[in-house]
Amino acid sequence: DGGITQSPKYLFRKEGQNVTLSCEQNLNHDAMYWYRQDPGQGLRLIYYSQIVNDFQKGDIAEGYSVSREKKESFPLTVTSAQKNPTAFYLCASSPQGPRTQYFGPGTRLLVL
Amino acid sequence: KQEVTQIPAALSVPEGENLVLNCSFTDSAIYNLQWFRQDPGKGLTSLLLIQSSQREQTSGRLNASLDKSSGRSTLYIAASQPGDSATYLCAVYEIKAAGNKLTFGGGTRVLVKP
Known about the structure:
The structure holds two protein chains of two kinds.
Chain A: E1 4-7, E2 10-13, E3 19-25, E4 31-37, E5 43-51, E6 54-57, E7 64-66, E8 76-78, E9 87-94, E10 102-103, E11 107-111
Parallel strand pairs in A: 2-11
Antiparallel strand pairs in A: 1-3, 3-8, 4-5, 4-9, 5-6, 7-8, 9-10, 9-11
Chain B: E1 4-7, E2 10-14, E3 19-25, E4 32-38, E5 44-51, E6 56-59, E7 62-67, E8 72-77, E9 86-94, E10 101-104, E11 108-113
Parallel strand pairs in B: 2-11
Antiparallel strand pairs in B: 1-3, 3-8, 4-5, 4-9, 6-7, 7-8, 9-10, 9-11
């Protein structure tokens, strides 16, 4: 059953804590993306990766970090430097080139 | 910098009425435009993708048109059903020297009342 999985579905962060959101895909896609969605708004690009061991900053990368050690996995760490992390985080993947992106179910991050 | 706007932000219609959702973008040098559906608390599902050279795409009750020169796209949903209630987002894909990019509008939240 091919697709993109994100875990956990809900994540709670304490002040000053780093948290990591998981994103895994078995679609054999080269490119992977992380977006942030705030209530009533569209998606904003945090980081993207076109190939293993390479990634680029998106529009709102400050306070976030990523790694791409495996083709299937693109974890996102929300660091303590991100002062307003409460949002819905969506991971996506696509084949190389201008193709449609396939989205995971999302992780909702809340601050305690 | 590309900006994508969707108007209205929310729309409520009775079942059976046709839906018209609008999307505008500021830079017409796009590669393609996509319409997505998002159910509450869920990810996005691609509905239609229109290449910049195309004028429209159809899938079942859905029809999307693209006027690249004026920076507009319209999504039509015929004979709406309660199951069409969701948020609809449009996104434009650009190929730039600095990197390829998908830019999203803020979405239109649709409620179809039985």
